[in-house]
Amino acid sequence: MRTVRQLLESKGPEVHAISPDAAVIDAIRLMAEKGIGALVVLEPGGRLAGMVSERDYARKIVLAGRSSRETPVRDIMTADIVTVGLDDAAPACMQLVTERRVRHLPVVVDGEVVGLVSIGDLVKAVIEEQQYELDQLQRYITS
């Protein structure tokens, strides 16, 4: 069973973040530039304030007819987020994203964001684990 630590070791700990006071258009530009669907929102000093995603943009800017140039990230970000630690297991994280209906889990250690795990990372880990178990069963049967 893979842990968040192992997931981050294989994918890297890079986290893209934005300030809650930045304009939403800047968040969307950064997501487009990096080819990602969400950003961690960090207060000055690095405290986790929330997450902002393409979903937030679509629902709270586009559908509401608001201006992405004049609206700060703080106004559309999701502040009530769930975080995980380095020793959390991938299946437990998968359960969290399923139950909370989120796609990203910030990894926090001692109050600092050290990584981000996406639902794609978790699906990949679960598939790899299942493939490993299947291979072991096939070896057992054929030997």
UniProtKB/TrEMBL annotation:
Name of the protein described by the UniProt record: Histidine kinase
GO-annotated molecular function: kinase activity
CBS domain residues: 9-68, 77-134
Keywords: CBS domain, Kinase, Transferase
SMART domains: CBS
Keyword Transferase appears in the UniProt entry: yes
One Pfam family recorded for the sequence: CBS
Entries under InterPro entries matching the protein: CBS_dom, CBS_dom_sf, CBSX3_CBS_dom, Diverse_CBS-Domain
Keyword Transmembrane: no
Gene3D superfamilies on file: CBS-domain
